[in-house]
Amino acid sequence: MVCLSCVCRRGFAFAARLPKKDWTIRLAGLSVRHYSTKTAPQLPGMEYQDAVCTLNTLQTNASALEEVRRERGHPQLQLQAMRGFLERAGLTVEDLDHLNIIHVTGTKGKGSTCAFTEQILRSYGFRTGFYSSPHLVQVRERIRINGQPIGKELFTKYFWQVYGRLHETKDAHGGTMPAYFRFLTILAFHVFLQEKVDVAVIEVGIGGAYDCTNIIRRPWVCGVSSLGIDHTQILGDTIEKIAWQKGGIFKPGVPAFTVRQPEDAMAVLRDRAKEIRCPLWVCPELEDYQADCEPLRLGLAGQHQRPNASLALQLSHTWLQRRCLPDKSFPSTSVENTGVPEGTSFKPSPIMVKGLADTEWPGRNQTLKHGAITYFLDGAHTVRSMQACVHWFRDTAAQHERSASGPVARVLLFNATGERDSAAMLKLLVPCHFDFAVFCPNITEAIASCNADQQNFNVSVENMLTRCLDNERSWRLHNSSGDNTGTQLLIEGSLPLVPEKKADTLVFPCILSALQWITQGRDSVLADPAKTVLPVKPSIMAKAAPLCDAAEIHLLITGSLHLVGGVLKHLDPVSNK
Questions:
Q1: What is the DSSP letter of 370?
Q2: At what angle do helices 422-429 and 461-478 cross, to 10 degrees?
Q3: Residue range of the domain that includes 333
């Protein structure tokens, strides 16, 4: 996520040049607070935003980017480099052995699995650390103690400790500094060691084998959530290649569990486990745990969360066995056709049952009701996760519509980034029968009130807005409108790309302008006088009549976790404090 004015400060005057078409958006009278990307000096009294601004320099650090390019052809160098950065920060891989780590990878559901697992162990009274990515609103969400993001003061304190050590040693190491995610991983390890957590739940960033979290030597247990096609440029373009990467987190003698996988993927995981001498089990179905207790209730909505909950039960149960019964073996009950034994479907303890029910994980199958507006937020960004999102949304929205006081308008707010197959995701969303499909980039707002947590210097405004226009065209094609000529940005004073054609698809230049148009002043949080309202063309305002006439508006926000985070920034002011 970025703030439009933050991008402007990098030399953009919020204007993007599209092939054969020139267009601009003029935002007059905006005051801009300057956040420099220059490395901030380490001085007493440095604030949280100063730390985050300095952290953001690692997104575009030239030496870090060169290092990534060099390592792409030699991925094994990534872990070697990570060990070097860890040691420069004053840590060793041996230190990480004391964190009693649960290491989780997967394509879909690894974050939810970690959230379930952390909640269960915290419910037992253990002091938990939880490292995840990406963040939704503030970067400190990635590093949690006892389920809560570390405070700004704590983040700032530990940030300068780690950054200072790395900065002091960079000249002796060719001027190198770790890239953004590597730095945050080192920072998380440092925080967890300093805060003396009993267990650290670590979510893999991308892949597994060469992910920087995989410098962990001796986790207590490993998990693999559902596998699918994603990050193909890094992990490979087949499920087998991706499974090989994910299985790279297995360690000799360390128990590992996986949810049921496609046959080809399971075969690769089985072979990787055998090669590494890692005992691997397949998780039972969640129903298999319920023989002697009430049906398990999950704090996270959606049928697709059930395998994640089963995996979390196996991970937490195994961790507790080692903690309390260190000499206990790990029996299996049956063997799958793939040759991977099935884990024990034990009876969950009351604490485990409560942990599953109490789990929260914002931005994933999340519902927020603000008066007449109901927000359905899900950061689905792959085809498989979008299938699950659609299933959840149709069921949940139908329940809300049955209790609505009158007609309901359905609106989609969508964005997708990177190499995601947005056309395929949009096709899955068509049967939801939206009255409007709205598109915007992951730009939180077009004024300077945003903080540094939303800055992303790895993508240009031009690329973001071009992608939105491409997504809008895909939606029109999937709706068989015969009109694939595109649309314009709907802020007054902009130059149209083409004449307006349809009212059911709109593109806005930022998240706030999209939300303000969709909600039509009916959400008091967005109608806050402190929030700038961009002037929208009268012709576009007139097309909002169905939204004004509806008793309720149901808004699905999906396609990108960064989009969901940008929306939550506006809907939940507490998350910014």
A1: E
A2: 40
A3: 92-149+197-358
**Using the 8-state DSSP alphabet, how is residue 18 labeled?**
E
Give the CATH number for residue 96: 3.40.1190.10
Least Cα distance to 447 among 56, 138, 28 occurs for 28
**Residue 207 and residue 246 in contact, taking contact as beta carbons nearer than 8 Å:** yes
Burial class (CB in 10 A: 0-12, 13-18, 19+), 326: exposed
- Answer yes or no: is 509 within a domain: yes
CA-based angle 112:115:120, to the nearest 5? 130
Do 281 and 416 reside in the same domain of the chain? no
pLDDT greater at residue 517 or residue 43 = 517
Q: Give the full edge-to-edge strand order of the sheet including 143-145.
A: 148-149, 143-145, 128-131, 199-203, 101-105, 221-224, 256-258, 280-282, 341-342, 334-335
Q: What is the DSSP letter of 2?
A: B
pLDDT in tens, 440-488: 999 988 765 555 666 665 667 888 888 999 999 999 988 865 444 444 4
Residue 30 resides in a domain: no
CATH of the domain at 569: 3.90.190.20
Single residue among 358, 379, 395 that ends a domain in this structure: 358
The pLDDT of 487-509, averaged and rounded, is 55
Domain boundary among 339, 358, 377: 358
DSSP codes joined into one string, 445-509:
-SSTT--GGG---SS-HHHHHHHHHHHHHHHHHHTT-S--S---B-BTTPPPSS----SSEEE-S
Average pLDDT, the chain: 83
The predicted structure's pLDDT at residue 193: 98
155 close to 51: Cβ distance less than 8 angstroms: yes
Q: Which two tokens stand for residue 215?
A: 């410098």
For residue 92, the one-letter residue type is: T
- What per-residue confidence (pLDDT) applies to 38? 39
Which pLDDT score is estimated for 442? 92
Report the alpha-carbon distance of residue 185 to residue 203 in Å, rounded: 10
